[in-house]
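>> received
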Amino acid sequence: MTPISLDAMAASVPDGALIAMPPDNSLPSVALARALIRRGVRGLRLLGVPVGGFAAEILIGAGCVAEVETSAVSLGEAGFAPRFTAAIKSGSIVMRDCTCPAVHSMLQAAEKGVPFMPLRGLIGSDILKHRPDWQVIQNPYGPPGDEIVLLPAMSPDVAAFHAVMADEAGNVWLGRRRECATLAHASKRALVTVERVVPGNFLEDERLASGAINATYVSAIAIATRGAQPAALLDEYGFDAAYVAEYARMARTEAGFQEWLAREVFAQAVAAE
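>> returned
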């Protein structure tokens, strides 16, 4: 598989797409989020798998997002995601409350090709009041009064994540982050940024095959050096806590966020040309 440019990858994501992204501890593609902002995408429906992190936060702040479905959007030790919080307070985005197990269950249903997945842990929670699309039924195999929730299969238009490497056949190595494989299996397309492309075929290497996702599930690859930063990437590089803390400070205000955006998203792109 021949890599495409990051800009071409961003251009392939249409306005209004349902795009699924992993959190900061699980291979996020911050590079693609930045490229989507530069492209001026609008009306995205974000699925945090199972929570949203830095990439989701900056897309929301840049006005790219219409709807968020997740259990949380957070900057971890840096605290609440300020632009997400501001968007919720202003009503500029729609929030579809979810839980971590529910997100994974809906994607697993799509991955398996079944219309729904049962989940028991939601019974008794207030979240069911806000999710009329989730059905509570009598467990057909249980005694009377034994209820269970049915969650519809979810197949995002785009799965977006970052990985250490791809091979020349288009297979992508995820390491232990197998939840990104489920994300790719469940989605209509998987757009993957990588640090590098290497010779060979991961699926023919016993040491790498178990941590790889087959090229069948990968729609496009783009090289983006340090494309997960400021998040960590496996053993490649660590979390940049100072960078995120500075972002959180600046993004408390709209003016501060716009200053950060001009410096860290638009100016850097010009410098790289």
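>> The CA atoms of residues 141 and 212 lie 37 Å apart.
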